[in-house]
Amino acid sequence: MSYDLDSSSGPARPAPLPRIGLLGTGPWAHRAHAPALAAHPGSEFAGVWGRRPEAAAELAQKYGVKVYEDPDALFADCDAVAFALPPDVQAPLAVRAAAAGCHLLLDKPVATTVADARAVAEAAGRHGVASVVFLTLRFAEPTAGWVGEQAARGGWFTASAHWLGSVFAAEGGPAGAAEGTPSAYADSPWRRAKGGLWDVGPHALSVLIPVLGEVTAVTAARGAADTVHLMLRHDSGAVSTAALTLSAPRAAAGVGLELRGGEGVFTLPDWSDVPGAYGRAVDALLTAARTGVPDPRGAAFGLRLTEILAEAEDLLTAAAT
Fold it and tell me: What sequence ranges are listed for the domain GFO/IDH/MocA-like oxidoreductase (predicted)?
């Protein structure tokens, strides 16, 4: 915490906490963003804006914060903004928020076109605001610490990842839910349009890249429903694979990542504390804002993820024609 040390103003006193506003009112905002922002001790949850005014009013009332009818008014009142919006709604609003001087806590993917993702990264740089992309595995524990340990270990030969969600499974229900229970995310139009590649692909890449190195070549093939299989060559010489879907049968759903190298086989640990992970993302954003040192999980990294996913999508489209 910083303090006002101006002797003319009397005793030193704590500086005001940075104010963070939330854009978005969907299931992810209810599950992760809003509770984490409300509980965060180093910032003030300032208010909510949403595309559905009634939903924004309901969420704001739940946490006792202001509801905004205009996102630009929220930007004007805040030091930072958190996004819980579809990627192609998020991107142009993030550019506007950066221009207003707000630091950016972005959701993944930053955008589904390279042009839009680049616009966000360039806006953050041009206006000197900090940015962090909330990639769950990079902030949840123990996965975040595990990624750092494996990146330091090096000497990797290969890796395989799978994120098999059942959001659109025929029998209904996400992994771990009762059969027939619909997923809270099943009504998401952008997820239906873009599938597992864009929704869970960023999670797999967010681990594979820091451990194995930059992606230098991409191969992609389609499987059942929205399933996509990626093969990635990394600048370390290692090759990784990733199987991604939102349509796995409930009994087959799951998440995993395995690394193999000279020191043996290492497996991604389990995690569960999503609000805690989001709180650590807030910490990372505030640290980057305070120090001026860009976070490695910022908008520039979000742009790189979009470039890789867009390349894979282009390969899939070409193969289908």
Answer: 186-266
For the chain, how many residues are written? 321
CA–CA distance, 180 with 186 (Å, rounded to integer)? 12
pTM over 0.85, yes/no: yes
Confidence of residue 181 (pLDDT cuts 50, 70, 90): low
Q: Over the stretch 106-157, which tens digit does the pLDDT of each residue have?
A: 999 999 999 999 999 999 999 999 999 999 999 999 999 999 999 999 999 9
Rounded CA separation 146/109 (Å): 22
